[in-house]
Amino acid sequence: MPKSASFVISATVLLFFLVSSPSKLAANSSLRLTQQTPAVAGTLSDENGAYIAGALVTLSAPTFKSQTKTDESGRFRFASVSSSRLTLLIEAEGFARLERTLNPLGEDTSELRLVLRPAPISERVTVTATRTETRIGETAAGIAVVRSEDLRTTAALVVDDALRQVPGFTLFRRSSSRTANPTSQGISLRGLGASGASRAIVLSDNVPLNDPFGGWVYWGRVPRESIERIEVLRGGASDLYGSSALAGVVNIITKPSDANALSLEASYGNERAASATLYFSRRLGDWSVSVAAESFRTDGYILVDQKERGPVDTAAGARHSAINLRANRSFGDNRRLFGTTSFFGESRTNGTPLTPNRTHIRQFTVGTDWQITNVGSIAARLYGGTQVFDQNFSAVSADRKSEALTRVQRVPAQVFGMTAQWSRGLGQSHTVVAGIDANQVRGASNEIAFNSGQASAFVGAGGRQATVAGYFEDLIKLNARWSITAGVRIDQWRNYAATSVSKPATSKAAATTTIFPDRSEHALSPRISALYKLTPHVSVVGSVNRAFRAPTLNELYRSFRVGNVVTLANDKLRAERLTGGEAGIRIYAFNERLAARSTAFWANVSQPVANVTLTTTPTLITRQRRNLGRTRSRGLELDADARLSKFWNLSAGYLFADAAVVKFPANPLLEGLMIPQVARHQFTFQLRYANPALVTVGLQGRGSSAQFDDDQNLFRLAPYFTFDVIVLRRVAHNIEAFVAIENLFNQRYEVGKTPVTSLGPPILMRAGFRFHLSK
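Above: the chain sequence. Below: its structure as tokens.
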């Protein structure tokens, strides 16, 4: 573990105990003063006997109201209670509300034993589907929620691997962010395919995480221990989220900082995979602060298949560190101001000696959430950041005995943006949401080109992109059966101040400068969806929508090389446009112990950006980013979640995606071929046994049929299946030990062909512990 991360963790633990000690003494004094008076106190647990910390407990009577939260032992206490009739209300994330009437003067209320049942799935709340709180059972959107419990019981070491349990979620390639180059970490959903840039937007508490220059995602930027849940919205969502939401939204929702808490996870495994992640929060009156930190490193593994590798192939190692700081000021129950700052650093070796890369990111956010009577809820965010991405490229000999440096790149980028939203209920049947978004991105690719090991040219290209947008949505509840959502958004963006400069390194010749013309586009993104309840437990849903994705500065101006494949930029790219729809049925059965959903979907994308092969030689494949004519993805999505018993839970999913190129006038030979990096069949499952008094076991599996790594469907990647397991055991009141194994059967599946075959990760075994303390 890096020394800086160890220092942060040690200092934070010490700070927690020093700061919390006075409050503990005060609490003990209060207890001694009031122990002779009737009190309401007790312990809160779930059906498995596990204590529930952080639950909101409200005790009320006609003349007063008091609130507290359960501590790490699930305990709560109200002293000096004199009323003979009280109402006790308990609310906790992921659990059904519990309400009881008490008489502390006529019964013993000092040692209550209360058990919360899991919330019915239809009653769980999502904020991603409509950008306001909505019950899952009342929205037509295809929402999948990865809860903190799911993250706790998965063997996955990184967030993107945990998200692969959502059918249809894939990165550009099958490879994990543990070892993959960051420029290949763009997301695809529902078979739309991906390039380096994501076709889905990734948010952390409503602020975009997508790289402003290239659109890919650094998954380590949000420390895992700070994550409360992740909501995945599948299907076009540009009506609310604009560009990059062509395929959907991934919203990482972090823990609130309004409680005193400390949690830490650390583990170590083969490949020298070491990880530590920490979350600390402290409430001080109307102020609260939080610190989230993470440190990770691995030596990785050799990517190239043993049959093809040579002396030039080395392990693809990676390391990153992140720290996020937040301060929050509350003004009553429904108003707050906050500010956050984050720092992230990453380095990777990428599998050969001459191709490392590094990234440094600094970002800030300030915002407010304000609820005003008769006005509604107002939320605003102002964010900005700077970053630098360094990347080397090389050419590898055919026998893989040597490599030569071809390019050294430095990509600086800056982003500055804001978002503001207003929402309000109008009567019993309408909730309206309206907002504006704006941002400006600037970035460049500064390169040194090499020929035969000598610098041959200095090349630079880049520009700016400014976007402004407004959206409106109306959530209409016609009656107990019908719910309709209608929304529209308009985006206007402009690419400007774009240039390309090239200067020979070995002569005094003047630099060649190309000034690209300014260009602007706009997109209108409407959506209408409906939900109809056939019975209280069976609903049918349907929606139609338009969505878009503007090309990134990376696609417009930056070329790159992977192995012996060169991909050229294209400053003439236009926005991708999607027209899509879906229809499905939802079933909640057996007192909502079973939730099942089936959704048929279709999406036509005009002008999709793809890497098109221009020339092929034995030593070099040349491609360029181009707008194809039209692609299509249609298929079926199945999800099921079942609580089999008190201890057992099973979830499973399946995706069938028929994704193909429909029209490409520039090269009709591509028509009818499969979209690269999209498998026709994907399935996942997770089986969990959770008995805190004994052991918790999580089993996860995911599989995929064959797919192609190129636009010409020449390089086929074979089907694969992987199986993971994690075993957890409580060894002390606040400490849990675990053993996790990824790819238990050590299947070496194919993740890419360039045309050299690269493989997915081998078995990864690690052991660690988790520590949790809250008040």
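The two ends are 29 Å apart (CA to CA).
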